[in-house]
Amino acid sequence: MPPLPGRSQLWLGLVLGSVCASLGSAVPTSNAQDALNVLLIIVDDLRPSLGCYGDKLIRSPNIDQLASHSLLFQNAFAQQAVCAPSRVSFLTGRRPDTTRLYDFNSYWRAHAGNFSTIPQYFKENGYVTMSVGKVFHPGISSNHSDDSPYSWSVPPYHPSSEKYENTKTCKGPDGELHANLLCPVDVAGVPEGTLPDKQSTEQAIRLLEKMKTSASPFFLAVGYHKPHIPFRYPQEFQRLYPLENISLAPDPQVPAGLPPVAYNPWMDIRQREDVQALNLSVPYGPIPVDFQRKIRQSYFACVSYLDSQVGQLLSALEALQLATSTIIAFTSDHGWALGEHGEWAKYSNFDVTTRVPLMFYVPGRTAPLPKAGEKLFPYINPLDSVSALTEPGRQTMDLVELVSLFPTLAGLAGLHIPPRCPVPSFHVQLCREGQSLLKHFWFHDSEEDLALRDNPRESIAYSQYPRPADSPQWNSDKPSLEDIQVMGYSIRTIDYRYTVWVGFSPHEFLANFSDVHAGELYFVDSDPLQDHNVYNDTQGGDLLRSLTP
């Protein structure tokens, strides 16, 4: 087991970089005709509840099919489990302490530094860059423009039906329309007769059709909304998950040893009309068991709806004869708790909110090029009867971070990998704080070579989350910068998750590691669900005292 860092060493390790050295820069492609296109699919709030990640309940045949031709990372982690900070982090290749975005209320170019983004870098290297749906978080954090014109060659596209997502379009048991959490709909009966993710798929396919005859390579980012709340999805997907087949979370109680500062009171869930009607106590009051099952049912149904959209997009990519010249990256901005630890939504440092799906399809490298007449991505309707499970492709257990997306996509596309960031790097426009993952794509057949390449005990993933106080309150989930008083810095290794909650100055953007408010320590082998905090126990305390300077 790698040594536990002392409290003052925790974030120093993050700043100095990951343990493993990255590979050198890839050789740029010689001309545009040699360049591989890039399709980046970003999903909102998707935890690894997918068949390809071993979830036998979830119907996700198209994403599983993509995984069968991809390199899949079993242990990928976001740097902050909330939308805007996570997206700005991985799209710039910088951690939240560098972007200085912990909430939704600032634009990094004005607030932290003029940092380049992944699409900007591809654009500057001759790519046509396009954005569909939720790629950057909309609003102040992307300058109300999705970072245009820096990142995109053409104006970003947002579905017209987005504006109805949080309105009263959900039919309740009383027959009236409500702004509910649970919102299966008859698509023909909703405003505009469509849903945002359907529109995004249609627009992405239109752009692919245009790019088929382009002399320039393309970088197309497609951001899907579901399974983000509200769970507004075509009602036919609900029948895939009968309530009698839906179990509760394996650990639905708030752990006895959980520090109050670590708990997220899921206030956004409580604001929905159907949840308000439950009259839950704040902050811990449990949701009734039958409603817990309904939440999980709708989340899973949203995942299958998402899968249908991904399947249509990939099928179109192949029909346009672009699948053999396009890298496909698939990921999420963070996970989502479904009752684990008595929590719902994101807003924490637990694995269930920080762990994300991550896979890369690289033509001819992660899968052989298809033979004549063979298809890689035929559309599979999730609503059809259960088909044979897709055999998984290549996988790695190494812990990796979303902040590695920038250098990895650059390297896979044959562009120079941006240099590692100096400390500090606020003045540096182009650099990256994550390591390139290219080493995982050099496949070997011998057991000895595999052992040399994959050493999970050398990998570490860092996450963090801010809090306004030591106890849960109304803004604990999404505190504004000026209200942040505590920052939870967390490291995840193959053996443990270790989190310290320390004092934080929002005016100086400084953490005080001498001011420890609480701590968490979970050992993965004996406590995979992270329910038994041993930070203050003899086992954890002795370890920490022996390692603290």
UniProtKB/TrEMBL annotation:
Gene Ontology molecular function, alphabetical: iduronate-2-sulfatase activity; metal ion binding
The keyword Phosphoprotein appears for this protein: no
Main location: other
Residue ranges occupied by any Sulfatase N-terminal domain in the UniProt entry: 37-414
Domain of life of the native organism: Eukaryota
EC identifiers of the protein: 3.1.6.13
BP GO annotations: carbohydrate derivative catabolic process
InterPro entries, per the entry: Alkaline_phosphatase_core_sf, IDS, Sulfatase_CS, Sulfatase_N
Compartmental location: Lysosome
Signal peptide: 1-26
Record keywords: Calcium, Disulfide bond, Glycoprotein, Hydrolase, Lysosome, Metal-binding, Signal, Zymogen
Any single Gene Ontology cellular-component annotation: lysosomal lumen
Cofactor(s) needed by this chain: Ca(2+)
Listed Pfam families: Sulfatase
Stored Gene3D superfamilies: Alkaline Phosphatase, subunit A (3.40.720.10)
Catalytic reaction equation(s): Hydrolysis of the 2-sulfate groups of the L-iduronate 2-sulfate units of dermatan sulfate, heparan sulfate and heparin
Family to which this protein belongs: Belongs to the sulfatase family.
Function: Lysosomal enzyme involved in the degradation pathway of dermatan sulfate and heparan sulfate.
Binding partners and assembly: Monomer. The 58-kDa mature form is composed of two chains resulting from proteolitic processing, the 42-kDa chain and the 14-kDa chain that remain stably associated and form the 58-kDa intermediate form which is enzymatically active.
The protein's name in its UniProt record: Iduronate 2-sulfatase
Gene name per UniProt: IDS
